Amino acid sequence: MAITVGMVSLGCPKNQMDAELMLATLEHDGLELVADAALADVVIVNTCGFIGDAKQEAIDTILELAQLKKEGQIKKLVVTGCLAQRYQDELATELPECDAVLGLGANADIAAVVRRVMEGETVRSYPSRRAWKLDGDRVQTTPHFFAYMRVGDGCNNCCTYCAIPLIRGGLRSREMTSLVEEATALAQNGVKELVLVAQDTTLYGQDLYGESRLVELLEALCDVQGIEWIRLLYCYPEHVTDALLEVMARQPKIVKYMDLPLQHASGHVLESMHRPGDRETLTALIRRIREAVPGITLRTTVMTGFPGETEEDFEELCEFLNDVRFERLGCFSYSAEEGTKAAQMPDQIPQEIKDQRREIVMQQQERISQEWLEAQIGKTVDVLVESFDRYAECWFGRTASDAPDIDGKVFFTAEKDVAPGDIVSVEIIDYMDWDLVGVCEE
User: Fold this and answer.
1) Tens digit of each residue's pLDDT (9 = 90 or more) over 221-245
2) What percent of the chain has pLDDT over 90?
3) pLDDT at 90
4) Which end of the chain has fewer CB atoms < 10 Å from its terminal CB, N or C?
5) Chain-centre distance of CA 217, in angstroms?
6) Which residues contact 429 (CB under 8 A, 6 or more apart)?
């Protein structure tokens, strides 16, 4: 009887790419994949270890599955991903319930590890991260009509608060030919939207070609038949070039959406973060982007409570956000991560103040978002249909202004036959919370 394997993948889409590659490796080795991890012989937890909340989620998940193992519902527990890479000795010592703890480089051996633990072995393996290839066959875990595509891994930016270079290492881009081949295969399987991800998407190709080749990659992906939307996430502001903006404005397949993780607007705080710029330069950048790509939707992420952030710094951030008015925004409280320079800085901010400031930012953004939503009423927009909500008795999907899993939805009724993966025209008639409401009459 085949060994059954379940996967619980936590964290960001980049981590999800590791999960999809591992699932394909397991399947090719003759192991049986099951959707419900609690019904598997072996459960693999692909962990995130970026910030405190993500680490806690990973530990809680491991402990829940360890209880299922104790009760005999599952047989073996394997832990991999960023948390396992970062806290190798700690996980192995403090969570002996784990039959295997694997660094990222051991993902290539995942099928062999599953067989070894089923034979009673305890595995601890931490080879070089580069032993894990970034391309190859994958089991798509997103709906059939959209897929993430990781253009590279690791990061060279070395922001003082970020543990990614410690976990993932430096920038490692994929070959352009491999990416185009993958996009072609995905399109043949019904994918209409490609969401490009990396730790810093704008630096794609710097390590391979000596310069960023993101523009050339976008041009090549636009030629792939069947792909209708191409979306960019994780674009660092200092690497947004005129050439990138020009291709976004010119190519209809590239949705007018950009994710810019700015983190702050105070020059003092940004310098401490080892990030370039200040309020003036960032305001100019936003103006340049919007002038070059009319109608673009901009998402950003900001951080409150970075060490040394004064009330004046925080007020400057709020004023900046109120002035530039991002259509999409996420905010999180600073988390001191072991091994980072910021964790050793003086003037650490109490958690209560960090959280208070975060709440103020989100309340301000809620007002800005409500105004944006209200301005959409009366417009007709293209919507990528996701599914039917049987409780609300209507369809829902996303516009070009909505990235999967992080932005809003459009809930709509339809007077014609529609199906998940269709792109339909919807007239917006109302909004609720963070979502739009519309009618598809064509």
Assistant:
1) 999 999 999 999 999 999 999 999 9
2) 85
3) 85
4) N
5) 20
6) 377, 437, 438, 439
Asked if residue 1 has pLDDT above 80, the reply is no
Alpha carbon distance 337, 163 (integer Å): 7
Instruction: List the CATH code of the domain at 4-131.
Output: 3.40.50.12160
Cβ contacts of residue 189 below 8 Å, gap of 6+? 140, 144
Residue 267 pLDDT more than 80?
yes
Q: What are the structure tokens assigned to 222, written together? A: 């636009």
Contacts 24+ apart (CB under 8 A), 89-95: 92/124, 95/59, 95/62, 95/63, 95/66
CA dist 285 and 244 (Å) reads: 13
- The predicted pLDDT at position 49 comes to 78
DSSP conformation letters of 113-147? HHHHHHTT--EEE---GGGS-S-S-----S-TTEE
DSSP-assigned beta bridge partners for residue 297: 257
Q: In sequence order, which residues have a C-beta less than 8 Å from that of residue 414 and are 6 or more positions away?
A: 395, 424, 439, 440
Domains in the chain: boundaries: 4-131, 146-374, 380-440
Going by the DSSP 8-state scheme, the letter that residue 331 receives in this structure is E
Task: Kindly report, residue by residue over 92-122, the tens digit of the pLDDT.
Answer: 888 889 999 999 999 999 999 999 999 999 9
CATH number for the 380-440 domain, one of 3.50.30.40, 2.40.50.140, 3.20.20.140, 2.60.40.420? 2.40.50.140
Q: Which CATH code of 3.30.420.40, 3.80.30.20, 3.30.70.1520, 2.30.40.10 fits the domain covering 146-374? A: 3.80.30.20
Residue 149: strand, helix, or coil: strand
- pLDDT interval class at 284 (50, 70, 90): very high
Q: What is the DSSP string of 365-428?
A: HHHHHHHHHHHTTT-EEEEEEEEEETTTTEEEEE-TT--TTTS--EEEEESS---TT-EEEEEE
* Sheet with strand 100-102: strands edge to edge: 32-33, 4-9, 42-47, 76-81, 100-102, 123-125
Rounded-to-integer distance, Cα 179 and Cα 141, Å: 18
pLDDT tens for 373-394 read 999 999 999 999 999 999 989 9
What whole-number distance in Å separates Cα of residue 274 and Cα of residue 407?
28
Other C-beta atoms lying within 10 Å of the C-beta of residue 382:
16
Secondary structure of residue 257 in the 3-state scheme: strand
Q: Where are the alpha helices (DSSP H) in 211-350?
A: 214-222, 242-250, 267-272, 279-292, 311-324
Contacts of 357 (CB under 8 A, 6+ apart): 304, 305, 309, 314, 333
